[in-house]
Specification:
mainly alpha, globular
Length: about 450
């Protein structure tokens, strides 16, 4: 394929990707599901599992190998922009008065699924080896736990807003706990990837760990004050500021990718390092275009991720594994989240709501799975299983929230209202009679 033909083909494929993904997102909203769920479904549908199975010639014609580098480049760029925005908006000060409850929920919903996922990776080695899982080592065991413990903050926030839960106690606790859980999860995932042999294999994981620590320190000690001076003391145009910061995020992502930590960590770190406006507020001239660019281009990431999903490679073992993993993912998250919220002082209804919300995975899970797949911690069948687990657990969130509400209404109907206390009626005595009280 000539360069001109490849460019023309890429433009045509991009048209299909953007139209299909955003149309699917619009349809998902009509079905009371998050927009991102529709985009993820469209990405999987355009991959080998659906389009490749129904019309393999059409799939090869639409997505030839020649345009894969361009699609991957767009996917990585969209991922950097999206995660840079996530890091910039991350604010653990939102914990506020419910800090203790949120911390308890975050730790419980990380530790319990982490222990279950890691334990299953060790206990069911033979079954997982049939799906191509590498021999257990610290990296694969850690990653198995992380895959079960992730909560997707962007999708969870969208669900909280769409259900009117943003100003409520369970909404605040769930969003705060998910933000804290993100910090824990990404840190553990970084450790798994550092030990996986990704990046420059001539550098041992211990040296890469030292480089990573030094890089984080430099970002916090030098880059943050420098950015504060540049952004606060100069009257820089919003478009120039946006270009500067996206370039900063891309550079940070390149560094972390070079040491085997994937671009996602550099993008997140860059977003965390960028100072907010004076007073701690977000810069709307930065947040708005970042979200617009991220939401516009994320379908490329979904399609690239969908190209690695292969239902035909699962077999009966894969389908059984999918059912078991999905049940474990839902039960461990909802159970630990509900129990922790109850210990934190929430009533039964609010605690159940928090547990259901913490089971949302979606985009964040897909990003982590993609990183693990590229690092060789997942085989294609296992990657397929976990992608569908992420999709299923996210789809279940809205119906489970409705079920929690109905359970609460039913329990309220079962509890009889307290019997009214008879009022004392005082009868005015007639002339000459003694006063009489009639109950």
């Amino acid at each position: 394929m000539s360069p001109d033909a490849m460019v023309a083909h890429f433009v045509g494929a991009s048209t299909l990707i953007l139209v299909a993904a955003h149309a699917a997102g619009w349809l998902a909203r009509l079905l009371k599901q998050p927009y991102i769920v529709g985009q993820l479904t469209a990405g999987i549908a355009l991959g080998p599992s659906l389009l490749g199975s129904l019309a393999p010639d059409v799939h090869r014609a639409l997505f030839p190998e020649a345009i894969e580098p361009a699609l991957t480049g767009f996917a990585q760029f969209s991922l950097v922009v999206f995660l840079f925005a996530v890091g910039y908006e991350l604010d653990l000060k939102v914990l506020g008065a419910r800090a203790r409850t949120a911390v308890t929920v975050a730790l419980a919903t990380f530790v319990v699924p982490m222990a279950v996922g890691s334990g299953c990776a060790l206990l069911f080695q033979d079954q997982l080896r049939a799906l191509g899982m590498p021999d257990p080592d610290p990296s694969t065991v850690l990653f198995a736990g992380v895959a079960l413990s992730i909560t997707a903050v962007p999708v969870l926030t969208a669900i909280v807003r769409e259900n009117g839960l943003a100003p409520t106690v369970p909404g605040i606790v769930a969003v705060s706990a998910a933000g804290l859980l993100d910090v824990i999860g990404w840190t553990v995932l970084a450790g798994a990837l550092l030990n996986s042999g990704g990046g420059d294999e001539s550098i041992g994981w211990r040296y890469r760990l030292v480089i990573a620590v030094v890089f984080v320190a430099l970002m916090l000690v030098l880059a943050r004050p420098l950015l504060r001076r540049v952004l606060w003391r100069t009257r820089m145009e919003p478009s120039l500021r946006l270009a500067l910061l996206i370039g900063f995020a891309l550079g940070s992502a390149w560094v972390t990718h070079s040491i085997g930590l994937h671009v996602i960590f550099g993008a997140l770190l860059a977003g965390v390092v960028v100072p907010r406006e004076k007073g701690g507020t977000l810069d709307p001239d930065l947040v708005r275009p970042l979200n617009d660019v991220g939401s516009l281009l994320l379908p490329f990431f979904f399609v690239v991720s969908g190209q690695s999903v292969a239902l035909g490679s699962m077999g009966s073992t894969g389908w059984v594994t999918l059912a078991v993993v999905t049940v474990l993912a839902v039960v461990t998250k909802i159970g630990s989240g509900t129990a922790a919220a109850r210990l934190g002082g929430l009533d039964r209804q609010d605690a159940r709501t928090v547990g259901v919300l913490m089971s949302t995975r979606g985009l964040t899970e897909l990003i982590a799975l993609n990183a693990g797949f590229q690092a060789g911690l997942l085989s294609r069948p296992l990657y397929t299983v976990l992608v569908f687990m992420a999709l299923c657990t996210t789809l279940f969130t809205q119906p489970l929230l409705l079920l929690v509400r109905r359970l609460d209404e039913r329990e309220r109907r079962r509890v009889p209202d307290p019997a009214p206390v008879p009022a004392r009626v005082v009868v005015e005595p007639r002339q000459g009679d003694a006063a009489a009280d009639v109950s």
